[in-house]
Design brief:
The protein is α/β, with parallel strands linked by helices. It folds into two domains: 151 residues, 3-Layer(aba) Sandwich (Rossmann fold), CATH 3.40.50.720; 94 residues, ProC C-terminal domain-like fold, CATH 1.10.3730. β1, α1 and β2 form a beta-alpha-beta unit. Bound molecules: NADP nicotinamide-adenine-dinucleotide phosphate (NAP). NADP nicotinamide-adenine-dinucleotide phosphate binds next to α1 and α3.
């Protein structure tokens, strides 16, 4: 099976890193500039498309139309086109390529490199062997979920942009900890331990307890956590944070109109 990346930036590199040890997959890429990487470079979208059974459209939304124009005259029968492009629907791609080509729209995040992405999946040809192959591969790269395309904007906000939002939250902790006068790298290590410890606590108990219960278990009445959580609730910080998710979702909706 040959996988070809059109564009070899952050996302394509992450997908490649997650998949490079899979047996029976060969890789190649085409991008504006040749890169110092271990997989072969193809000189054009056409030559990459000839090589690839699966073509990953790993380019920015504003570059998608130009690439689709290059793919338009090519014979894509039997190939799968995988698009992680935020805000661009299967119908948008079909406008250029028609409805015959097999198109899979996905929304992964960068943790795909560590096989820890949460990835949404939708296709115009459900049930085909080729589309199920992609779904299985995504399952090896974390958790994959089949989702109606209407849900992609919210999913993009929560799971595509989510790592950046969670890191922004951790950054608040880090800024506060600067009062300790410890080196930044040590602060990062401590915060990593905190987040890993929290994640393990969540993972170990998630089947038996709700998130609310897990919070309650570390909150003693009248204690420090209680004081912090009271502030959090009284100032409706959760609601404020929902605004972040809403803004990202709305941007995804806007981008689908470009
Ligand atoms: N990054 C994420 O966390 C993430 C998560 C989910 C979805 N996505 C989606 O994945 C897509 C790619 O994102 P990214 O972060 O990987 O972007 P990126 O790092 O900017 O990479 C884009 C790549 O596209 C190439 N490119 C642009 N125009 C081209 C053209 N006309 N012909 C050939 N190659 C072209 C660039 O080539 P050069 O390097 O040669 O300039 C670059 O390698 C986006 O649509 C985004 O919505 C990203």
């Amino acid at each position: 099976m040959n996988y070809g990346f059109i564009g070899f930036g952050n996302l394509a590199k992450a997908v490649y890193q997650g998949l490079k040890d899979e047996p029976n997959i060969n890789f190649g890429y085409f991008s504006r500039h040749k890169k110092e990487v271990e997989i072969p470079f193809f000189e054009s979208a056409k030559s990459l498309a000839e090589f690839a059974d699966v073509l990953w459209l790993a380019i920015k939304p504003q570059d998608l139309a130009g690439i689709l124009e290059q793919l338009q005259p090519l014979d894509l029968s039997g190939k799968v086109i995988v698009s992680p492009v935020a805000g661009k629907s299967i119908a948008f791609i079909e406008k250029y390529l028609g409805t015959d080509p097999i198109i899979v729209r996905i929304m992964p995040n960068l943790a795909i490199a560590y096989k820890k992405s949460v990835t949404a999946f939708a296709t115009n040809h459900p049930g085909l062997e080729q589309t199920e192959h992609i779904y299985e591969i995504l399952g090896k790269l974390g958790k994959a979920v089949k989702l109606d395309e209407n849900g992609f904007d919210l999913f993009t906000s929560v799971f595509g942009s989510g790592p950046a939002f969670i890191l922004s939250f951790i950054q608040i902790f880090k800024n506060k900890m600067r009062e300790f006068d410890l080196p930044g790298s040590l602060l990062d290590e401590l915060l990593l331990e905190l987040t890993q410890g929290t994640t393990i606590y969540f993972a170990q108990n998630q089947k038996d307890f709700s998130i609310e219960e897990l919070i309650k278990n570390i909150t003693s009445k009248g204690g420090t956590t209680q004081a912090g959580l009271d502030y959090y609730r009284n100032h409706e910080i959760g609601k404020l944070f929902e605004g972040v998710l809403e803004a990202a979702k709305n941007r995804s909706i806007e981008m689908s109109k470009d």
